[in-house]
Structure prediction request, 219 residues.
Amino acid sequence: MIAPSILAADFSRLGEEVAVVAPHVELLHVDVMDGHFVPNISLGIPVIASLRNATDLKLDCHLMMMNPDFYFEPLRGAGADLVTVHLEVFPDPSGAAEKARMVGLEFGLVINPSTPFSAVEPYVELCDMLVVMSVNPGFGGQSFMPETLNKMELARKFVESHGLATDIEVDGGIDVTTIGRASDAGANVFVAGSAVFGADDPVIAVQELRSALESRESA
Prediction:
């Protein structure tokens, strides 16, 4: 599944930009930053509500925030489908997972490049999605960190050995040169921001990402 990150879109034409790629992707990635967990501030509830009115795609909301659980209910009301929160914020995320499900949200965990897979392993079974950051969070346009591939491999082995349906998402630096490596390592959801919305033709960019995946799978 390819998840274009709207952080790289033109916010003055957000509805139009989403409409162009919507028929060609499975979900949208929405980065919510609070200026505390990461230095930047991105967007909030009103933008997510506007986005919900513009598309039926699943909204995958990545909450780079110190108190994301405070916003679970408003996010659900705005139209979010899935929230992912950082393990670095919730060393024991059991309560956050329960709170998300109580308001009707799918739940996932995110681990930064410096966080080992062993830290999140006890909580993978709580997750609809596990996100491996392949860049440091908070800024778009960074280069893929190949040292994170091992965590994707460990995550995939754990998910399959435990019979889980948890998706493994890779977030950061995904383009035609890195998507295949991430797929080989076990990721099945690929966040692509600049590679899609920064391209001259976002639809062709998505097609090229899929081609890179397919050529890897058929090799």
Q: What stands out?
A: The longest strand covers residues 27-33. The chain has a mean pLDDT of 93. The longest helix spans residues 202-218.
